[in-house]
Amino acid sequence: MPNLNHLKYQSASWLILLLVILLQACQQAEAPRRIEILFLGHDSEHHNSEAYVPLLASALTPKGINFTYTSDPDALHTENLEKYDGLALYANHDSITLSQEKALLAFVESGKGFIPIHCASYCFRNSSAFVKMVGGQFKEHETGTFTADIIQKDHPITSKLTPFETWDETYIHHQHNPDKTVLMERVAGDHKEPWTWVSNYGKGRVFYTAY
Questions:
Q1: Handedness of CA 75, 110, 99, 208 (dihedral sign)
Q2: What does the H/E/C string look like for the chain?
Q3: Using one digit for the tens of pLDDT, what is the confidence trace for 87-125?
Q4: pTM
Q5: Contact between 158 and 197 (Cβ < 8 Å)
Q6: CB < 8 Å & 24+ apart, contacts of 72-75
Q7: Judging by beta carbons within 10 Å of its beta carbon (0-12, 13-18, 19+), is residue 11 exposed, middle or buried?
């Protein structure tokens, strides 16, 4: 029986590494300063987003990356988003208002970073534009222990990673946007499930992982 807490923290540590690479790439070389990230979570025991903020902050604050946590989707308005360089989303908010959608899409399109994590691919299901920007939507899952294949070994995000085994929810996605670069796949029999990917949205960049 695997030690689930150890495996979860192993996955979290790997995710921290990816976030460091992605967020450092968002810095402007001509104006070095701390990166400000808004982390939108939710109040839930299942995907306990608030518990992961201290973990991320402890690893990334010394590297010049600050996190501001909220569980309120009303934070998605232009005046507030203008304070940040990127948005991390790990939550189960089912719907988004038209004004929130407009502000979020414009924020990323203007050149900011968007980091939807795991269950974020099931957020805001009433917005086809949001699903397209994420790159796909969660459909269903079981659970299991697996090793995702790294299929883009020369990409800056994955070039220094080695495959690892972990327990997780075995996400299946649908409504895939083909305009993305898949970095990792979860293979189950003959099926290859896109697991981690990146894409551009306007001048902005998107990173998603099902971990």
A1: negative
A2: CCCHHHHHHHHHHHHHHHHHHHHHHCCCCCCCCCEEEEEECCCCCCCCHHHHHHHHHHHHHHHCEEEEEECCHHHCCHHHHCCCCEEEECCCCCCCCHHHHHHHHHHHHCCCEEEEEHHHHHCCCCCHHHHHHHCCEEEEEEEEEEECEECCCCCCCCCCCCCCEEEEEEEEEECCCCCCEEEEEEEECCEEEEEEEEEEECCEEEEEECC
A3: 999 999 999 999 999 999 999 999 999 999 999 999 999
A4: 0.86
A5: no
A6: 73/40, 73/97, 73/100, 74/100, 75/38, 75/40
A7: middle
Q: Does residue 1 carry a pLDDT above 60?
A: no
* Residue 134: burial class (beta carbons within 10 Å; 0-12, 13-18, 19+): buried
d(CA 177, CA 200): 12
Whether 17 shows a pLDDT value over 70: the answer reads no
| Tokens read off for 134 | 């994420």
Q: Within its chain, how far is the Cα of 140 from the centroid? A: 18
The answer to whether the CB of 81 falls within 8 A of the CB of 50 is no
Residue 127's pLDDT band, with cuts at 50, 70 and 90, is very high
Amino acid at 85: D
**In contact, 107 and 81? CB cutoff 8 Å:** yes
Count of C-beta atoms within a 10 Å radius of residue 154: 6
